[in-house]
Amino acid sequence: RNTTKTMIKSSYWVLLVVLILSTFVAEIHGNKQAVALDKFQKYKFKPNSQIIDDRSDFEAQDLVVHDMVVHSQLGLKEKDRIEKLPGQPQVKFSQYGGYVTVDKLAGRAFYYYFVEAQRSKQTLPLLLWLNGGPGCSSLAYGAMEELGPFRVNSDGKTLHKNRYSWNYAANILFLESPAGVGFSYSNKSTDYHSIGDRKTAADNYVFLMNWLERFPEYKNRDFYIAGESYAGHYVPQLAHNILYHNKKANKTIINLKGIMVCVPLSFLLFIFQLECENA
């Protein structure tokens, strides 16, 4: 009995420590993304700001013309295969990283990092992760500091396994979006000054259509979208685009099953009212 009680107490304290650390880490990441959001909001109200105001009701852009947005991805999957990251321990799952063009004329391309599930990859769902900010990298934060399969060691050169990685439960796709975030880019300089939610949602949809062409085995897979912070805009708006095009095509183009947002920022005015009222 004493041994059992000791084990229960030990488990309790371990769980408590994990919860405290999780809260601390979440607070750090939240502060980083809050800083990015604050800069974005201040820039948006500058007289010369070219950021599009998307506070009106969101409407999906009509991108149903398949041949205009989806291009041949033949051979690109294998080119994107990552044999091993620097300093990475041995793993049994496959990982990929590369660019998907979302606008050929503008030379706009989004970078992705994809990790297949630790096991049962053929049956587990596909989950797209979007970090917020706006401007926070899904690779730097989401993949390497939050839900990805690896963590960076204190030496800054090697990695260790994350025992709480979400790829134990799903195949995880991390997307750097919009252009200018992380490794994603555009050859058209005006793209960096005309960012808006509608444009981002349209680009994210085009990315998905082309990525699924590159990884056709996931075309009919159960699909989920998740994110945090300003992804409170990105996630539901991308979901809206997907459902809109599914309905218009009268078929399931993307098999969306659900969305999830963590500490979402969905309405800026409401957030700033709360800050003022509780200052």
UniProtKB/TrEMBL annotation:
Q: Mainly localized where?
A: secreted
Q: Where in the cell is it found?
A: Secreted
Leader sequence residues: 1-30
**Pfam families in UniProt:** Peptidase_S10
Which InterPro entries does this one have? AB_hydrolase_fold, Peptidase_S10, Ser_caboxypep_ser_AS
For this protein, the Enzyme Commission number is 3.4.16.-
Q: What class of enzyme is it?
A: hydrolase
Please provide the record's keywords in A-Z order. Answer: Carboxypeptidase, Glycoprotein, Hydrolase, Protease, Secreted, Signal
Q: Biological process GO terms, please?
A: proteolysis
PROSITE patterns per record? CARBOXYPEPT_SER_SER
- SUPFAM superfamilies assigned to the protein according to its UniProt record, in alphabetical order: alpha/beta-Hydrolases (SSF53474)
What are the record's GO terms for cellular component?
A: extracellular region; vacuole
One example of the protein's molecular function in GO is:
serine-type carboxypeptidase activity
The UniProt similarity line reads:
Belongs to the peptidase S10 family.
This chain belongs to the protein called Carboxypeptidase
Q: List the lineage, top down.
A: Eukaryota, Viridiplantae, Streptophyta, Embryophyta, Tracheophyta
